[in-house]
Amino acid sequence: MTTSFGPAIDTRPLFVRERRALLDLLGSLEPGDWGRPTVCPGWDVHDVVGHVLNDYMRRISSVRDGWGGAVFADDETLPAYLARVNGVFVEATRQCSPRLMVELLAHLGPQLDEIWADARLDAPAVVDVSWASTDEPSPAWLDIAREYTEFWVHQQQIRDAVDRPGADEPELLSPVIDTFMRALPHTLRTVDRPQGTTMRFDVTGPAGGTWWATRDTDRWLPDAPGASSEEAAARVTTDQDTLWRLATRGILPDEARRRSVLAGDEPLTTAATTLLAVVA
Q1: pLDDT at 227
Q2: Which architecture characterizes domain 10-123+134-167 according to CATH?
Q3: Mycothiol-dependent maleylpyruvate isomerase metal-binding domain: from which residue to which, for each copy (predicted)?
Q4: pLDDT of amino acid 172
């Protein structure tokens, strides 16, 4: 199926495999590894695992049990709300042992898998993906893919913290890159260009590919069937590691530009390299 967000991605079969890699990783950690700092400000490995546990429990509570969860405070923005409720949960899980959190992840994971298996990809999203669009509802497949990227990225942040490579084979990473690139049209929204103008974004590496955005009458849309590099008004080429770190602000846009090759319309390449696929 194809929508204004581009072709659907079915990440549902990948959750089991990603979780198995995470549990294997956590089971191999030494006690001191749990206190190592991560790229997430103020969070160590233990905290990131607590946050992943929060994600599991939040989704099961919401979809399976219809539980609304924490409510917004007066005049609270979405980023502030998420920072607050995530921080509260992480602080609470500091009372939990690493062994207990691993057991909880292993216990709750199959229940979460059942939720994904029962989901219709073309149904409305449980939670709209704001970094892909703010003026139209998201499909369920994009919401589910966003959740997959959340788990994958947090696993990589743990791996970085404890200096362990892995879980980045193309079968696991390619859907992450593809999902993040659905943010490209929304990322270009402030750059007005004539209808038909195209932007090309190449991600190199085994998990990479090529994505296009085309200017319509009043917005940018994904894909440009039949477009060629000669027709692109702007082109960005970067590697897969740079892309996922940029999209999650593991690195800042200036660093991403230093690692990339930019060509053509400078305002377009500058906007494209601010691509963000998390709420911040």
Answers
A1: 64
A2: Up-down Bundle (1.20)
A3: 17-158
A4: 98
